[in-house]
Amino acid sequence: MNTKILGNSLTFKTFGWLKVNNTEIFMPEGIKQEYYLKSDKKLDVEEFKNVKYGVSEECIELNDKFGNLYRSYVSSKDAEINEIVDLKQDSKNNILFDTHDLIAEENSKLNLILNYNSISNSDKYRNSIIRILAKENSQVNLYVIQNGDEKSFSLESIFVKTEKNSSVNLCQFELGSKELYTNFQGNLIGNESNLNIDSIYFGYDDNKINMLYDILHYGEATKSEVVVNGALKDDSYKNFKSTLDFKEGSSFAVGSEEEYVVLMDDSVTALSVPILLAHEDNVEGNHAASAGKIDQQLLFYIMSRGFNQVEAESLIIESKFSRAINKLENEELKEKLWKNIFGIARRR
Fold first, then answer.
1. What is the pLDDT of residues 139-169, one digit of tens each?
2. pTM to 2 decimals?
3. Sign for the pseudo-dihedral over CA of 312, 314, 320, 323
4. Domain boundaries defined on the chain
5. How many distinct helices (H) and strands (E) make up the chain?
6. 52: exposed, middle or buried (C-beta count within 10 Å: 0-12, 13-18, 19+)?
7. What angle, 0 to 180 degrees and rounded to 10, lies between the N-to-C axes of helices 309-325 and 296-303?
8. Cβ atoms 38, 5 nearer than 8 A
9. Which tens digit of pLDDT belongs to each residue from 104-129?
């Protein structure tokens, strides 16, 4: 039995007739089920309390009640840690309600890859919560790889809090899932802290992709950059919303949000809602969104060099995605990503 909720709601509402202020999500019923990986002892992190974030309140409550995996990653002061976590979903582990807490102590560096994979034809349900606290002068590099399939229903909520002179770098590789809902909230609290997001998505068949990014500048001289590149084919659907919000006290802050999507078929649907808010005078904000078909002159030029149409389209998609994927330092995972992307691009 599915439950209807409203999720990925805009903090600053626009015209109701546009029907983008929130999203109807029909969530599968939550049940308690064991997962094959062991959980860590839960951390009590004050900075994650009394904060509103996530796809919806129901998603957060779902993991509180039915969570079957909790992991914590803490980089000690002046130290560096590197971790890769493989999170598979198959017929025996088809339900995953996972929570990940990342804490980077002062002057430390935390590198984490979360690799989600679907490897069976059974229905799969995932509700992931990822929370990041970057303390003074620390750096967090997070890579989220999502290789879902036509049987996957995925919810993904990410919350970030930055302290003075810290930086958080996020790359999301969203490939697949019958339905995918992602929500990101970044609270740039500390002065001169930085947030960089470089992500990709690829929709195909009748996939539904719904993404929301809220970037809130609180501290002085904070910087943020959000760049998302996507591609849509077949009958896929994408709804992308982003808000860049300069709060009072964020003087000299600089932020930008950009989303670009390649429309490979006339039957796709692409919606984009970029919002820019300023409660402070001395700030700089930029936002952009574009959607368009593959440039036919460029396609013809590539094909004139001996490539067929499908190969030429794949090369164009590669050029759009390469910036984000090249930031992934694990060559094996990088190769698997490209293999998956080329496989999607060449499907007919």
1. 999 999 999 889 999 999 999 999 999 999 9
2. 0.96
3. negative
4. 3-298
5. 4, 18
6. exposed
7. 110
8. no
9. 999 999 999 999 999 888 999 999 99
